[in-house]
Amino acid sequence: MKPLLLLRISALLLLVLLAGCWSRRELNTLAIQLGMGIDKSGDDYSMTVQVVDPSKVASRAGGSEGTPVALFEAKGMTVHEAARKMTETSPRRIYGAHIRVFVLGEELAREGIAKALDLQYRDSEERTDFLILIAKGGKAKDVLNVMTQLEKIPATKLYNSLIASSRAWAPSTMITLDQLVTALTADGTNPVITGVRVIGGKAESGGGMDNISKIEAPVKLKLAGLAVFRGDKLIGWLNEEESRGYNYITGNIKSSVGNLACPDGGRIALEVVRSDTKMKGKVENGKPVIDLALSYRLNVSDVECKINLEDPAVIKQLEDLSEARLLSLLKKTVDVMQHKFGVDNFGFSQAIYRADPKAWDRMKDQWDDLFPDLEVRYQVKAKIRWTSTAKNSFINDIKE
Amino acid sequence: MTIRLNEEARDSSHGLYTGLGANIMAIRAAIGNSPDLVVKELKWGGLWAGAVMYMDGMADTKAIADFVIQPLLTYDRDQSQAAVERGSQALTHLMQEVLEAGDIDKIADFDALLHALLSGSCILLLDHLTEGLRIGMGGIEERSVGEPITQTVIRGPMEAFTESFSTNTALIRRRLKDPNLWLEVRQIGAVTKTNVGVMYLCGIVNEGLVDEVRSRLDRIEIDGILESGYIEEMIQDKTLTPFPLLTNTERPDAVAAALLEGRVAIIVDGTPFVLLAPGLFVQYFQSVEDYYQRWDISTLLRLIRFMSFFIALLAPSFYIAVTTFHQEMLPTGLLISLAAQREGVPFPAFIEALLMEMTYEILREAGVRMPRTVGQAVSIVGTLVIGQAAVEAGIVSAGMVIIVSITAIASYVLPQVSMSITVRMIRFVLMGLAASFGLYGMLVGIIALFIHLCTLRSFGIPYMTPFAPLYVQDQKDTLFRLPWPLMKKRPSLLGRNNPVRQGDESSPVRGDTA
């Protein structure tokens, strides 16, 4: 009995000593950080955090004045130093597990983002499910310094609109930290990151409650296409059209909308409801080739012209038109990537590697030279599934 | 060692005296001349004398007058002459031919006489005889059979046990009209001499279990047994455990069902709570109504009970652990909402929880103990203090009030109060662990709890049966309650003497023999 008792007591004591999570923090001692930005400031990093003030967000009508979030900034030689220096201005310790968006300034992005990511990647406290954005043509701090409507917390607004736009419109792409690191480290791949821009005025003027006290906020945040990286350095931007092309090629389309010219003038909009991209690589006569097979389904969603949708031939015609239009979009996007930027962000290299690993071994050192001349073969298949809840448009029946 | 009051003054373990006067004096002396002893002396001419005696209020006075005194006084003198000549045969003669009462037997021992007298029987003594008659004329005031108060059902019998031993056994026997329903009665308690009955269905019950119950009961030497709780603590397998090892019930149908499964009922005079042995962990989650309602809803309710058990046990500690250690586990929106509630709350979450739980426990205890007349006042103050004022004053957060409330409600879902008491106690330990070590501490506490549960036994049967050890065929009546056609056999450990309880064709639905 005695030795057993001793064993039990020591087990209890070990519990105290071995407890890895001896770090009790009450909720009201934390500054919950939802947005984080890193900019270059000379040789130092400048870190900006957007911290939520819970009592001003919670549903109960507080009526208290002031913004629901606070911004703190600190500079340091390394990111972590900057983060800790934050306590000089912030009354509470910054708690980073709930970051929704991580914004990197364009200047920093052009110099290389890798060094700025390690802290987030390494820290045990972080959840790595936040989304990464590039502040197009400005500083991360400016992006985090704008009040937004509907969503009280600007960081949440960025997070939600990035998700919504990539699901419904497809000019943006969601990338999380682990995906970004994979894209940076794998052979022959380069990341793309969605950009965000402050529009409508100076960022400084968008930081007050007055910015959202109007029906239309003067200063707004807008997603602005994809940033193309070579390695960890930003080299340029895709416009909206090319961004969508990029998402078609990488199979990132949940839903989108495109339009076609009707034969008799006017336009007809088609909603992409499902898109499936098959990217296959192969090596022919020592030269790499990519087969891109894209099949997608469409709904006729908006008819703004006179057209007889009850005629299967017309539907077929629409399908053909849509295919031709998408094909040109894909070609244009690949062309921009091959000749304007010369970097492979599509993952073509991975497709080649999967098809023929030995050939890839020979090619991988000269991939940057091979990529611009890479032959891409397209196969696009559209299928119009239905015409929503109407057949022919009432426009056909309007009496003149 | 036998326990006895007033060792010097009383030595009653001897036979009766020959003189009537001596016997009466001895009885008077034994009960300290208490005035509630009624002695009615009878005389037939100068032939012989006798006395009828009973305790006032414990015996039915009218019945004694009609069926004992009246026949004796109108008794024919010639015959009485003959009777007296027959000596001790006179008693047999009276017993068989004169007295108009059913429950009569002879008594020769002074100890037995006193016991019978104090149990409410009427005693008839005759002069010159060293024997007397005990006439069962018990007429003590009793509560009538009422509705169960602690174990209520929506559908099912609305009868509950009372304080009377004979009423209770009758309530059980009424449900099991089989000669194999056996009852053994013994008196336990040197002073209270409480009737304790052991009831079982011979042929179903495991003999070893009955022997074990008998030997544990026989070992008890105590001055008094006032409630079955005394017995429960004296015969359970382990004292140092928060878990109840015997179930108790005030429902005769629950006892009947338990007997049919091969359990043993221990009925204690003076309390409506009957003990059932053994008491296994799953049985604390079973209500008799599970078998009266359809199996599908019963299964759902069982699952809800198990869920409530874990909510009652873990909700406050989980809340503490997550909000003070593992904020990253919360969805962002919920975190912000909780953080907003906590703004301005001066105490750590643990103290806050402890404060609220203690307040609730105090209110609960007050609710049980307080005189009914002040109930209203206490409940108003309680609701206001615990619900509104504490939150509005910023002493506790609204989230904590919700947690404490759901915990409190969940703990009353369990059909057995003894198990919810256990849950309430362990909850505080887990809260302490959660406050010190987070989820890690909680997990260690839960593992320790389960190890403890697995070491427990109730009358030799592992407490966690049929989970550990696992009996697959017994799972039909644990987390789930399968339809009756699928429950053809009794629980394997309890009913192994006589496993089958249904005919193969007892339902038009084909079931397996599980």
TrEMBL record, chain A:
It is a lipid-anchor. Residues 24-197 form the Spore germination protein N-terminal domain. Keywords: Germination, Lipoprotein, Membrane, Palmitate, Signal. GO terms for cellular component: membrane. Residues 225-385 form the Spore germination GerAC-like C-terminal domain. The keyword Membrane applies. Transmembrane segments: none annotated. It is found in: Membrane. GO terms for biological process: spore germination. It comes from the Bacteria. Belongs to the GerABKC lipoprotein family. NCBIfam families: spore_ger_x_C (TIGR02887). This is Spore germination protein KC. The lineage of its organism: Bacteria, Bacillati, Bacillota, Bacilli, Bacillales.
From TrEMBL, chain B:
InterPro entries: Spore_Ger, UPF0353/GerABKA_families. GO terms for cellular component: membrane. It comes from the Bacteria. One of its GO terms (biological process) is spore germination. Keywords: Membrane, Transmembrane, Transmembrane helix. Residues 493-514 are annotated as: Disordered. The chain crosses the membrane at residues 303-322, 393-414, 426-451. Pfam families: GerA (PF03323). Belongs to the GerABKA family. This is Spore germination protein KA.
